[in-house]
Amino acid sequence: xxxxxxxxxxxxxFDIDDPKFNEHFTDVLDAFVAKCPVARSNVGxxxxxxxxxxxxxxxxxxWQTFSSAKGFQPNRPEGLPYLYPEESDPPYxxxxxxxxxxxxxxxxxxxxxxxxxxxxxxxxxxxxxRGECDFxxxxxxELPGRAFFKNLVDVPVEDLPMxxxxxxxxxxxxxxxxxxxxxxxxxxxxxxxxxRKDNPGPGDLLxxxxxxxxxxxELCPWEDRVSILTDLTxxxxxxxxxxxxxxxxxxxxxxxxxxxxxxxxxxxxxxxxEFARVFPPVVALGRSxxxxxxxxxxxLKEGDFILLNYASASxxxxxxxxxxxxxxxxxxxxxxxxxxxxxxCIGSHLARLELRVVLEEVLRRIxxxxxxxxxxxxxxxxxxxxxxxxxxxxxxGGSKGA
Length: 402
Ligand code: HEM
Hints:
Layout: H1 2-6, H2 19-23, H3 25-35, E1 38-41, E2 47-50, H4 53-61, E3 66-67, H5 92-100, H6 106-110, H7 113-125, E4 132-134, H8 135-140, H9 143-153, H10 160-172, H11 175-198, H12 205-211, E5 214-215, E6 218-219, H13 222-238, H14 240-253, H15 255-263, H16 268-278, E7 284-289, E8 293-295, E9 298-300, E10 305-309, H17 310-313, H18 348-365, E11 370-371, E12 378-381, E13 385-389, E14 391-393
Parallel strand pairs: 2-10
Antiparallel strand pairs: 1-2, 3-7, 4-14, 5-6, 7-10, 8-9, 11-14, 12-13
Helix pairs in contact: 7-9, 7-18, 9-13, 10-11, 11-12, 11-13, 12-13, 14-16, 14-18, 15-18, 16-18
The site of protoporphyrin IX containing FE has 26 residues, from helix 13, helix 14 and helix 18.
């Protein structure tokens, strides 16, 4: 049935990298939730995809049975270095989270608000007098990198495009190019971290990463510390863009929501949560099964690889009423966009802060915008998803009276 609808049998022969999944994204997710609690892929060594909210939650919380230690990408490319803390299990995982968490706590990231607002302002200044922009290139791809580099790791902002490209190819590129591309990011960030190791700073995040943690009774290897910085950078620069762009796309097409948020910015935090639910940058991340176990009637064996489909779980009607509707006023929003269990997103408070500030500034400066006539956004999808273009038009100067 899905063969006819999507040009591929998504239930029995899924491929997360297939452009048809990118094209029919929400329809495939909804079909999974409705009819296929566990989908099968035959790509490479094969894998399963767990799709419903309760099953994703249960598996995500059971790290002993669903281990991250063998990586989050299915058919992990040969030679790809492991990304920590993501691709590790407790107790090593927890050693790192204990050291890293304080730098990402709500109170710690609140101190970044003024800088994030200044960067949002500068980026908007760059295009507001043109009366048009590509919201992704001119804003959405830039802002999260600035927020992460300027406030947390002191990487020169000029190097952001190079790192974005390396991460992009590492995630969405041809599988045989992914390892080399990630290696480039590792190499660059390793040099950056080594400088800090030689010249310790004020006890910030970089110092904490450079100092390392205990691994099996010894100080962890240097490569693990570079890996920590690389994983944080990947999360910091490659995810929030999609929520931001998805939100702006929705607001371009829904003037009532746009006007409501512009008129009353206190509505924005709730809307941000709904945008994260509906525009999930982390589609599905993998785990290796460590013992025979059954999920929703499917028998999984030790050694099998599964994906936790966070994107579909957030669209499960058992958890969310009328899930395909984007409702900025929705009460008590439930979603799995930031994951569940021990790997729950460390950057969620920073992401929420960025999204709130961005929507406040965009709506304050440009209260009316729409999709450029004849244009539509484009997307890329693999284990992550992002928007690649979003052509907008608006009055020159931002508002009709400007
Ligand atoms: C809207 C933006 C974001 C979304 C939707 C998101 C989503 C997620 C999800 C679903 C996970 C769980 C992975 C798993 O279960 O294997 C995760 C983990 C992670 N995220 Fe985020 N993320 C976002 C922003 C960020 C930011 C801004 C950072 C860093 C500054 C970040 C850094 C990380 C890291 C390092 C992990 C691994 C945590 C661990 O393994 O303990 N993320 N994120």
